[in-house]
Amino acid sequence: MSPSSSSSSDALPGSSILFYLNGQRVVVDRPDLDMTLLQYLRSTGLTGTKLGCGEGGCGACTVMISRYDIDESRIIHASVNACLCPLATVDGKHVITVEGLGTSARPHPVQERIALLHGSQCGFCTPGFVMSLYTLLRNNPNPTEHEIEECFDGNLCRCTGYRPILDAAKTFADMAWKQGTVAADGSAHITEPKTKGGCGIDGCCRLQKSPDAEVANGSSAIVHDPTKAPTSIAGGCCKGLESDSGCCKSQKRHDSGVAECKAVNQAEADKAAVISKFQRYDPTQDLIFPPFLIRYAKRTTSDSEPQLRPLDITSTDPQSWCKRYLRPLTLSGLLAALEQYPDAKLVAGNSEVGVEIKLKRSKFSTQIYVNDIPEMRQISDTPSGVTFGANITLARFEQALDHYGAEYGAQRTQSLAALRENLRYFAGNQIRNVATIAGNIVTASPISDLNPVFLAAGATLTLASASGERCVPMAEFFLGYRRTAMQNGEVLVSVTVPFNVEGEVIRAFKQAKRKDDDIAIVTCGLRVRVDEDQRVVDAAFAYGGVAPTTVLAHAAAKAAVGGTWGDRSVLDRILGACQQELQLDYAVPGGMAEYRTALTTSFLFKFWAVSCSALRIACAESLLAHELDDEERVVSKARQEYAPVEDRAIVGKGVAHLAALKQVTGEARYVDDMPALAGELHVGLVLSTRAHARILSIDAEPALALSGVVRVLTARDVPGENHWNIFKDEEILPTDTVHYYGQPLALVLATTQKLAQDAARLVSISYEDLPAVLSIRDAVAKSSFYDETRQLINGDVDAALAAADLVLEGESYCGAQEHFYLETMGAVAVPKGEDGEMDVFASTQNPTEAQMVVAEVLGVPASRVVCRVKRMGGGFGGKESRSVLIAAFAALGAHHTGRSVRIALDRDEDMQVSGQRHPFYGTWTVGVTKEGRILGLRARVYSNGGFSHDLSIGVLERAVSHLDNCYRMPATDFVGRVCRTNTQSNTAFRSFGGCQGMFLSESMLCEVADRLNLSVEAVREINLYQPGDVTPFSQPLNDWNVPLMWDQLKAKAQYDERRQAVDEFNKHSTHRKRGLAMLPTKFGISFGVKHLNQGMALVHVYMDGSVLVAHGGTEMGQGLHTKMAMVAAETLELPLESIFISETATNTAANTSPTAASASSDLNGFAVYNACKELADRLRPYRERMVGESFAKIAKTAYLDRCNLTAAGHYCTPDIGFNWAKNEGLLYFYFTQGVAIAEVELDTLTGAHSTLRVDIIMDVGRSLNKAIDIGQIEGAFAQGQGWTTTEEFLYFPSTGRLFTTGPGNYKIPSAMDIPRDFRVELLEGADTSVLKTIFSSKGVGEPPLFLGASVFFALRDAVLAKRRQEGVCAPLYMESPATPEILRMACEDQLAQMARIPQALKDGKTPFTIRI
């Protein structure tokens, strides 16, 4: 084989791309230039790679792309966001998806460990996590725990709370208990499990030979009454058959949270047992990098083989946005292309361009891919500095910075270290692996992370064009918003960063809403150089986020030069100059004017202290430097605790989610993974661009003119009922009035999703604007309410207030929250061609309502419509009612066209169209004794319901009935109203109003404690309900364990000692403060609507002994199907693998209640039990006479004997029913309860914080699956933490448009935000005799969420410490979420006060965004 005789630079351009996909060669001729790699993968049936956001912000689409790097002569494996990767750019690369690793039958070790250690709940994000970890291992088979945690910085999960994912991933780290790996050199490092078949504890008694034989298969056993706790049997894993030394589990845990519990920590034992069985990781068994691609990259392929060539691809699709795609391989080729196409868009990592195309609908008809040009990837150094090729990726940039830092030493490479510091939190790995230096610079983003550092460092840019090269100082490069000094035909070739000299210090600082993978609010590079007398010779203070482009604070630098660094007067002078120079207008784009201004001076103060310390200047501030430098984040750790289950075969055990292995391998199918049917159409939504208006006309002709657009549907095309929801006050498609910005007005049906969406934007709407109301406070001021009122009045509040030592008035507010289920809403409607029948495959928690509404919309009986739900990629309440509308859209399209119709919302569409958690605002008047005991409370609470009722009344009822939280309030006067506003109709969200009600009261208690100079924990403790107390809704607390858990957790977590330690820390720390909070919760379990408290099931036993269970609940990651299968297996006395649950469908489970209210295990579990109990009773005679026979033979015998092997089960909650008008009846069947302690550390100069430790104890009764319930607690906690800290929901007040429409500006917690020390325990040994639930279990999905607010209240505690230090005596009012902005400005130090904008300068101005 001879090498190619001609170089690629001389070769004629090609029009096809060649790459490998999971080891197989793929050639695509003239690829679709608008197509992303994600779209291509899914079109080929590789649906394991998911679309979560389309903007590179969630990681659900992560794949591994490998390439041979000519510059480094090695193979590079990179995790990449497939949603942003143009298909045409993978030429010469190897793409590996989750399907390329393994199958559910033979999973890769990464897949196996995440699945079996409970790291996959809904599973939609899981393939992305799998691929991120897999990529890390391909590059480094023996990573550290820190490297493992960091590899997930570009992946989001909404279900798990991340802890089990991290636990699973860390089994690949060098830990004593891991199952070993094989090193890159092939040598094995294997730690064999010490025991086999034991509980994971050394010397397990289970390893001793039992004197008794096992019970034969199929033998009869007693089926326990599921409402009763079974009689205790001998403890320990040996079931009382101890060895001479006693059972390994017979000793009380030394740290047990329950005094009577005599069990080891079964959670850790279960984990150890699972880990001991893992297959070892052997990198030599992974897919190899195709050798052909090495030759292809080196251009040594033979004449008969494909060759690496420049690309010049033109689109043949007239509707394509990109008409021409070029890929030059040399700098000269690039410059020649730019001469020919001067308006072409240069594309490298596509992280910026891809987002502009996706979200801003920007069209770049000619694109030039520049990442395959070696001249632009070179790195070199001279004695004066380092020159970086502009097109090296940020990941390569990181490596180079580390290399030169080590080679030249810390002093000379401070600028490089500052760049490296900001790269630590720059986007996620997937973005850094493809984004380039050039892209970060030339986009001229005003919030660039790197540009301020380049600017402060005095970097120089080299620009090239066909006429030659020129050098431009960074200080002269930025001309204005998104404008630079680059001329037509020029490209950025390199950037040179000079080394630092003696007497010079440079640092970088950045603040964002979330530390990892987030765009900056303010970022800066600050540099100073002093002479031997500490006089400032030169200074450069560069900022991003405070002007239309990156700027130098010239006045502040001028104030510094000539002054003595370390002299306080110089500090005051430069702070004042900076403040005056960079003061922002109240209505500045981006908002947060005061906060951003405060950050500029706060960063400058930090730099002053750190630089003085570095220069060994003795001053007061230099002593604070240790507080102000960003410390390396410690690796997280966690502990879960529960006791073993010794009296049941299956129920209660920590069984992994039954679909976990399918989810980690990409085999699990979600709605949009279903293969398209012939002729299938897609729905594009025509969305309103007004918040409130009359519709004057809808012109669909421009859309219909496009080839492939089949039809446009409006309200007049609804054949049946156009109104829906409980109150029938919302239209499927509006007839004459728009009620919120983003409301669907019409549906476009087209042959592709892209065409449908493009066509939808061509539909023209004429409006007549009407007044709009957005926020709660505006609605209250304008009396914009729905008619319904809910109130709870007990005792004489006026008398209680009169008798109080202190009467306090105040208000509380908690904001909205986006569900951010990783799978957006979607549905596929398939008409069956006769009798109006239709199958609707939907991502919904409420198949029955979807069925009924579709039938009403189409004007057919409900029996003609079947709604099917296989699984959802998360729901959290967001798919209880709002998903019904999406299903109706698909069905309407299918009805009119007779073709299958699919709808899958993009993330920004989903967030605009669907509702969120209700914001709540409350006013209160409370009377307390001087000890803090509550005597009476009058509260008025208001929710933002949006434009229709939806479920807002139910949410309000739960909020009002949870205002008491866990506290006795002898006299109450609670009144609640729902506000009517012009926003999306807010809807159910995990906790369903309960957390809002509790938050309002807890905020009130904090202010009471402040006024009484008491700790809020003391106030909480003195007011705790005691067993037998009666709630404001007249319900006695007979099953009440909060006082018990409060005392146990307080002792076990050493609250008192830690309180002293926190106070001591705060005495000695000026700008970092710690906070501690202890918070209880009780959550009532039942639907507020009586008839919903019922469940049904249908169970078939087949002749081969397998069992099919259908029930009314849906699976959204919470493990409901797993629990129901466990109930069935326990009741039928069968192994779990005999039970199968296929889907939830309205033709097998009719008239079902929504999967909501944390009641689905109760309702459906009892229904499954009742059906299985009936079958077990029928089969008992056969089992008794066929002892020792297989269940298959027993079932076949029963069938031949004409025994009915099908049973239906039904259950309705007894005693339930509440009359709000009379305040009588049983509102909740029982309460799930818990207590949490949170400890945080706050940077008071920026508002950044970390959660140091969280301890939780939860009463979930006798759990159906302890491992799943632990996962639910952790996941709910993370959502509650996000709700009260990072997740800020914002609107543009001028238009009513939602601002936070995706992960780019809406921040759910990341894996790095969870507690660094996370301890979760289930209450064991408590009396469950009063519980009448399935196997004495309790619902767990929603109750733990409010405990996440313990982080908020710990942060409040830290803010109070700072305010006390500053001598601030004013009451502290803090809204939720407590974003860095809220926290920083609440500290009220001198810099915060300097940044305050006088009210006179705010009057008449509209803020950029508002909370509603």
Topology:
Blueprint: E1 16-21, E2 24-29, H1 37-43, E3 62-69, E4 74-81, E5 94-96, H2 109-116, H3 126-139, H4 145-150, H5 163-169, E6 181-182, E7 188-189, H6 266-276, H7 291-298, E8 311-314, E9 324-327, H8 331-340, E10 345-347, H9 353-359, E11 366-369, E12 379-382, E13 385-389, H10 394-408, H11 414-423, H12 429-432, H13 437-442, H14 451-457, E14 460-465, E15 468-473, E16 478-480, E17 483-484, E18 491-498, E19 504-511, E20 522-530, E21 536-544, E22 551-552, H15 554-560, H16 568-581, H17 593-614, H18 625-628, E23 637-641, H19 660-664, E24 681-687, E25 693-699, H20 701-704, E26 709-713, E27 723-724, E28 730-731, E29 737-738, E30 744-750, H21 753-760, E31 764-769, H22 776-781, E32 785-794, H23 797-803, E33 806-814, E34 826-831, E35 838-842, H24 847-858, E36 865-869, H25 882-897, E37 901-904, H26 907-913, E38 920-928, E39 934-946, H27 952-961, E40 971-980, H28 994-1012, H29 1016-1023, H30 1042-1052, H31 1055-1068, E41 1072-1085, E42 1094-1101, E43 1107-1111, H32 1120-1132, E44 1139-1140, E45 1144-1145, H33 1160-1185, H34 1191-1200, E46 1206-1212, ...
Parallel strand pairs: 1-5, 9-11, 10-11, 23-51, 24-37, 35-36, 39-40, 43-44, 50-51
Antiparallel strand pairs: 1-2, 3-4, 3-5, 6-7, 8-9, 12-13, 13-18, 14-15, 14-18, 16-17, 19-20, 20-21, 21-22, 24-30, 25-29, 25-31, 26-30, 27-28, 32-40, 33-38, 34-35, 34-37, 36-45, 38-39, 41-49, 42-43, 42-46, 47-48, 49-50
Helix pairs in contact: 2-5, 10-11, 15-16, 16-17, 17-37, 24-25, 27-28, 28-29, 32-33, 35-36
